[in-house]
């Protein structure tokens, strides 16, 4: 296996009521709750995908980030072999807690299938796959903190073994109104070399 | 054709038998085991029929000679029984002699214990031990402990394709030389969690499941565990091992359609089968028997049927059957028990019958094999599709 150079082609972060694409603010709102912020972002970018409103917050966060980076990337007329490599710290705990609350009282017990379906973190990868018709590799990992070494290695393996043409990497953390998404697209062409230090720097920006 | 990875042992416990031999006897004698629920106190007892293993947890624990204060879930009990059989069948006496791993699939894990004791954990200290058996990974580690296995242990949970992915991962680890030997398979016990969950989705049959029938009304759940022992050719040669059959092909794909439904055209299933043929280096016309996923839900059989027609071509489909009318749909264990059935089909040169079939589906001209058929079987393709768009295909081949 010859390890070819890989490149960060675009990156996006979502936090504090703001969306930044390739270092520039593309959307922001006054301080508000995530449900309101995400709805306004959805409207601003005219995403036109009503299933968005059924999603839990983690999926909305991942979906928005993927939407911003992939909207110009996807060619609907062909197979887009873009792998999804995501991670976070709190898994789907935000939704798990909501679900647990709905069954904690024996007398007032109502588990909702619509909530239950989001009690796994990798559901957000499914939402992105369905939206962009990606039949590619996908994995969701849980780490104590953003792990650039792991992400860089894993993405490079996917590209070097030709399992994917590009890899959409993402850190999508959401718990209790605290959120941060950092997504970036890695490919075999570009100007910004895909290295641990660069990924770390962009994440901390 | 690629040589594939040697299968040198197998073990199984299901509603139709407690051993490989018993399962085979039931399959060739039309002995289905879809019955009323006995082991779980549920309000649906009278209406819902399942493929249940008619042994209590106590009986299973006694067979395994577990200590009285054990915290085995039913899933772990079944898994340990099947895995021990597989190891014994492979003639393994010193399990850590080679780099040996265990890849076990489950979807319910210890949910049966959690749902039984959930509201009592704060009150009853003696029950607290069951909390740690809830997570899926606990099952594999319990099995590994019972086998004294010290190597790699991991769990795969991709819904109803779980065991297929466990077998696939195991085969890849052998092929790439990461392991010399690996025990692969899956286990799932019945639980209210799945009974009520599938009922909510309205895909449970009120009678006996009828795969690929126009009037099919849904699935019967089942419980089972099965494991295969895969070994490197170096071990096979060195120890002059008997090879039961080989895992020659595998593939998995993402349907990218819906959380709990399969796409209309069976895209994920099509891609999984296509990849498996590439890995096996086989052509579709070389397949002698398809053990279909065939859950008998309206959605699965239509989607799978369309994918099969796309892969094999109109009127070129080989003999196929679903064995789920015998066992029920055993979820994460399904691909493992059907792997055992695929090997049995190869060893005995038989196609097992698809019970309960009467009327072909109006959407296409696909008619399953409804009676036991004897013919030479070189290659069997086995499908397993799960929620989350998880589609997997395995191909098993006669060892030459």
TrEMBL record, chain A:
Protein name according to UniProt: 3-oxoacyl-ACP synthase
Domain of life of the source: Bacteria
TrEMBL record, chain B:
InterPro entries associated with the record: Beta-ketoacyl_synthase, Ketoacyl_synth_AS, Ketoacyl_synth_C, Ketoacyl_synth_N, PKS_Beta-ketoAc_synthase_dom, Thiolase-like
Gene3D superfamilies named in the record: 3.40.47.10
Record domain Ketosynthase family 3 (KS3): where: 2-398
Keyword set, alphabetical order: Transferase
Stated family: Belongs to the thiolase-like superfamily. Beta-ketoacyl-ACP synthases family.
Pfam hit, one: ketoacyl-synt
Protein's recorded name: Beta-ketoacyl-[acyl-carrier-protein] synthase family protein
Organism from which the protein derives: Flavobacterium ranwuense
